[in-house]
Design a protein that fits this description.
About 30% of the residues lie in helices and about 25% in strands. The chain is α+β, with helices and mostly antiparallel strands and about 230 residues long.
């Protein structure tokens, strides 16, 4: 178990409510060339309008297009696969399974959140709605973002200052929403010995998504050897 994973596991705290943690797996939506195939969304996951015939044709097709592969499939934007997949955006995200719940949690840096350059930006604009005020606000935002980047670069890794680590729940639903997990491999992309692995998460509403995990966690999630 990596140090980051150990730190995140130690922060589950009251969320478990005394339940046993059945699965705690590193997961991310980092699927190269992946796209959405969801009714009402375009391939980037943005809402769109389409007629019923085109919608049915899109959902039936599973062929690669211009080197792309399906990352998320579902009937509508509110399906479980879309909600869970979006919760896995970014770094340090984990899939958690207990006897009653399914969740995605994220390990965050509390100090960095407190220094976010966006803090107070909306309030400043509300006070000064002129063009000059807007430009000053944007300038302030850019300067603040640059300052945040410098601070983050100088700051030790979160594993070296666990007091700043907080865990947030990005998605939560009943355990029964997860119908199964199976292995998946991108065609023409070899699996390196210690490299990442891909799995398909299938849900009770018929939706599914393909996510990246580790060799060990792929085995835990699927119950099959590498």
């Amino acid at each position: 178990m990596s140090e980051t994973k150990q730190l995140a596991f130690g922060r589950l705290g009251q969320w478990t409510r005394g339940e046993q943690v059945l699965v705690f797996a590193e997961c991310t939506q980092n699927l190269a060339a992946g796209r959405y195939k969801v009714g009402g969304l375009d391939e980037n996951g943005t809402a769109k309008e389409t007629n019923a015939v085109l919608r049915a044709a899109e959902l039936l097709s599973d062929d690669p297009v211009a080197g792309q592969w399906v990352a998320v499939r579902g009937e509508h934007p509110a399906c479980t696969a879309v909600r869970l997949y979006r919760a896995l955006a970014g770094a340090d995200t984990f899939l958690v399974l207990t006897p009653s719940r399914l969740a995605v949690v994220r390990l965050r840096d509390a100090r960095r959140q407190g220094e976010n350059a966006l803090d107070g930006f909306t309030a400043d604009l509300a006070e000064d709605r002129s063009v000059g005020g807007l430009l000053r606000g944007v300038g302030k935002l850019v300067r603040g973002a640059a300052t945040d980047m410098v601070r983050a670069a100088r700051r030790p890794p979160l594993t070296e200052r666990p007091e700043d680590a907080v865990l947030t729940v990005e998605f939560e639903g009943p355990h029964q929403e997860l119908a199964g997990v199976r292995r998946w491999k991108q065609p023409m992309v070899p699996n390196l010995r210690h490299g990442p692995r891909m799995v398909e998460l299938h849900f009770a509403d018929g939706s599914w998504c393909r996510v990246q995990t580790t060799v060990a966690d792929a085995q835990t999630l699927t119950g099959t050897p590498d």
